[in-house]
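Hey, I'm writing a tutorial for new members on how sequence and structure tokens pair up, and I'd like a real worked example in the thread rather than a made-up one. If someone can provide the structure for the chain below, I'll link this post from the tutorial.
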Amino acid sequence: MLLEEDDTVNDDFSLLATLIVEEEEDRPAARRGSMPGHAVIHRGRAEGHERLYRDYFAETPTYPPNIFRRRFRMNRSLFLRILSAVEGFDPYFAQKRDAIGVPGLSSLQKVTAALRILAYGASADSVDDYVRIGKSTAIESVKRFVRAIIALFHEQYLRLPNNEDVIRLLAMNERRGFPGMLGSIDCMHWKWKNCPTAWQGMYTGHIQEPTMILEAVASQDLWIWHAFFGLPGSLNDLNVLDRSPLFNELAEGRAPPVNYTINGNNYSIGYYLADGIYPSWSTFVKTIPAPQGNKRQFFAKAQESARKDVERAFGVLQSRFAIVRGPALYWEIDTLSDIMRACVILHNMIVEDERDHYGINFNYDTIEGYTPPNISHSLIPETMEYVDTYYRIRNRQSHSQLQADLVEHLWQLHGGE
């Protein structure tokens, strides 16, 4: 009985297999590519590499350096440095041969495609006609490129100010009339076009569209010293500050202490210029709304002018990398976070590379009559010291005193002008 049932089952499978074969033979022949049914596109990858090389990287390139700078957002020497580092870090960018020995895309093509997408905010297949790279490969190149940038350059170009940085920042801002200032702080929103429907309520705030927030601290030379990204757009700047790690090192005693004197009063905590929404802490200096009197009016004008450093940094970041100006087209939060952090790192690398071309001297390491503050790193304090520092950061009385001293200090320096 079992044998008869097995024979019946085998006969049924044989009949089914015969029907499937006959059905497939009746179908029109499919053009096979990397995926079943997809057409094979012979892009001419070698010709694309040669054209790209002739246009920008030959000894006598077709396009001069100023056009290279405009299209790649950086000088050629910096681009080649990044290209070499990324190629050595991730084998994906190294040129390989396929199963029949045909050379694949070069590292120059993959990095150029990734950088063009970041710089122009264009779709993945918009670089295909020039770079000769498929859409899926371009997307993969972008994801791997930003991860490589973060892994290679994060410690150097997205660091908190070290001893030397603090000395330079204090000297730079003392010349502007703000001794003890470390930079300006503000938040920027990035629209998220492909935000999942289930999350849109959480990520939608006053802009009425899903967004993600970047909190940043920037200095006069547009260097971004602090970048905290990823919180939903329904939060305001205060909510972001509550979750930000900006003052963690200061509270834990690991930040370089800052000692300075204003109007005869001594201070030991650096501060940031901020707008009106930020709290009245000793680490923030805000403008005076509706100021009365010449001194207060002059202070408000100077504070609002200097605070625009971070606004300028946001504008330059969005101009250099249009991908963070337009709506984000990716689905994963991790990918968006990697893109934002990589763009900030690349921005700082460009700032460092072109600092001498701004027409402003940002080298204040040796200023006549300037004494560098006493800066040293210490161990993490005990609980009581941590609590004491925590309350010192949030001291409203120190905030009011610092603001009043700055009003007098600025008036004494520049009021007559």
